[in-house]
Fold this protein.
Amino acid sequence: MSAHDLLFELQTEELPPRTLLTLSTALAENLVKGLDGAAVAHGPARSFATPRRLAVLVLACAASARDRAVERRGPPVSNAFDASGAPTQAALAFARNCGVEVPQLERLVTEKGAWLVFRGIEPGAATSSVIGELINQSIAALPIARRMRWGARTAEFVRPVHGVVLLHGEAVVPVQVLGLESSRRTRGHRFHAPKPFALRSARSYEARLARAKVVADFGTRREAVRAGVAAAAAASGGSALIDGALLDEVTALVEWPVAIAGRFEPRFLALPREVVIATIQDHQRYFPIEGADGKLSGGFVTVSNIESRDPDKIRAGNERVVRPRLSDAAFFWDQDRKVPLEVRARELCSVTFQAKLGSYAQKAERVKSLALEIGGRIEAGPHVAPAALLAKADLLSAMVGEFPELQGIMGRYYAEAEGYPQAVAVAIEEHYRPRFAGDALPSTRTGQAVALADKIDTLVGIFAIGERPTGAKDPFGLRRAALGVLRILLECRIDVDLRALLESSAAAQPVHKDGLAPEVHDYIAERLRGLFLERGDGTTPEMVDAVLATRPASPLDAEARLRALEEFQRLPEAPVLTALNKRIANILRKAPADGEAVVETALFTEDAERRLHELLAAVRHGVTGAAAARRYGESLRGLIALAAPVAEFFERVMVMDENPARRANRLALLRDAQRLLGTAADLSRLPG
C-alpha cells in the first residue's frame, strides 16, 4: 500500500495568542483520531502554529484505509432452499446483495441453527475520499469558546480563514473546508514574503516557509525567542527575566522573531519591583532585564516580528511606548500612599463582594473573626486582626485598579510605607496564596491564619447561596480555594479541626442553609482525595476512601491514617481482616443492627460468640486509645488479635438465627466488631 506525507493547513487572520498552542495541539490530535477511526495507517503527526496559520503534517499517510474482513448473515438454511434443494428467493436476493452467486455463500452452524453467510474482504476507502470529512470534523471539535462568521459566508471559526492547503505527497486533495477549496498555495511572512506561493510537496512545508521568513514549528520558534531574548539581555550586561507564560504568548504573536533590547529611565527603578515588572511584562509583553546584583537594571527586551534594516527605530518606538506606562505607575504609587489603608478598608463597605453576601467590608469582619479563631489555635500572634481587616484594602487603590494582578502585593508595600508591623504587611500579601497550582504558600502563621479564613469564608459563603461549581464552571474559584486550604493545612503542618472552622464560618454568613458546613466539608474532602491520589506513591482510591469514611478531623489526621494504613496492608494478617470486615459490612448492610442495642451475654449460646465478645472488650481500650493519640499504626496492629475469633464466629455461629432475640444480639455483636475494626480506617472499603 502506497503512503505519502499528508499536509493540512488553515491560513487565517491573527489567532488568539493565548489559545494558539491549545488549538494547534487539539487539531493534530483530532485529525489523528479521525484517521485511526477510519483505519488509515499513518506515521507520527506534527503540528505547526503561527499567528496566521494552523497546520498538521502526518507522515507516511496511506493512500487508502486498510481492507477489512466482513461477515454478513443471511436467511436460515431451512428458508434458503426448497424441497428439491433449489435456492429460494430469499437466498437469491441475499447473494445478489452480496455480489456473489448462491454457491459462493458459506454456512454458519450454531447451537440455534444454521444460516447462509457471506464472508469476504471489503476494500478500504481511498484516503482522499474521507479526509475532507475528517478535517471538517476535527475543526468542529476544536475547543473554541466563541466562533465567528465573516463576509457573506456561513462557515464559522475563531478567526476568518482565507486559504486551505491539503497535499498528499505532491498531489492536491480536492476538498472544501470552511467554504474554501483546497489548493497548494500558502503565504509567507506578511512583510518579508507577502506574495502567495505554491508548495511542491507536503514534506517541503516547513523548509519552504522558513525561506519565506516563517518559523512554522511553535517549539522551534519558542526556543528562538528564548535564545534571542537571553542573548540581547546579555549584550546589555544583564540577564532576562523570562516568564514561561509570556514566552508562550510572545511566541504566538510572531512568525520571524527578532529580539531587540531597550531601556527606560532610571527614575522608574524607585517604583516597587513588581510594579515595574507588571508594566513591562504583563502590559507591554517585554522581558525585564536584571543585573548581577539581582536588581532590575532599567533594561528590557522586546521581540519584533520583522527583521528591520533600522532596528534603532524599533528600539526607540518601544522605549517611547513604555515611558508613559511607567509614568502612570509612578503617579499611582505617589497618589495611593496619600490615603491610609485603614481609610480604604472602611471604604470597602461600598464595594460588593457578592450581592447576597454583602460588601468586602462585611467579608473582612467575617474573615477577622475566623482568622482569630484559627490564629488562637496555631499561635499566630497579635497581628491577625489588623492583617485581616486590611487584607482587601488595596483593592481600592489606583495601582491595583490598573494592575489587578498586584492585589495583596501593593497592600504589603502600602502597609510598610505606613509603618505597620512587618507581620501585618507580609500577611496582607500572603493571604492570597496559593494563587495557582505550585504557587508558594504563606510563610508566616499570621499569613496562614488570614489566608485560611479568607478562603474558607469564600467557600462557605458561595455554597450558602447555592453557587456550587458545576462541570467546568467555577466563576468564584472554589476549586482553587479548596485546594489552597488543603495545601496550607498539609504542607504548613497545621492541625486544626476543619469541620469546626466550617461550622464557625457557616454561622457567620448572612445567608443560612441547613447542612451547609457538612456539604462544604464533603466538597473539600473530594479535593483531598484527588491530592492524595496525585502523589503517585502507591496510594489507591480504595485506601483513600477507607480513610475518608472515618471523617477525619483534619487533613493532617487523614494523612496520618493513610500512612498507617499503607504500613498495615503489608502485614500478612491484613487481607484476612479486610475480608472479614467486608463480610461483616455486607451482613449489616442487609440486616442493620440497632445502633443503641447493648450486647447481652445471657443470650449467647455458642462459645465462639462469647470469645469474640470477650476479645472485643480486651482490645478495645488499646485500639481506641492509640487512635485517640493518633498512633494509628499501633491501633491497626491491635486489631490483628480479632482475626481468629471473627473467623471462628462466622464458622460456628449462624448470625441470622430463627430466634429474633439471638439474631438481634448477634447483629449487635457484629456492629461492635465493625465499629472497632473501623477505628482508624474502614477496612471494608479495601479490595479483597
The mean pLDDT is 94.
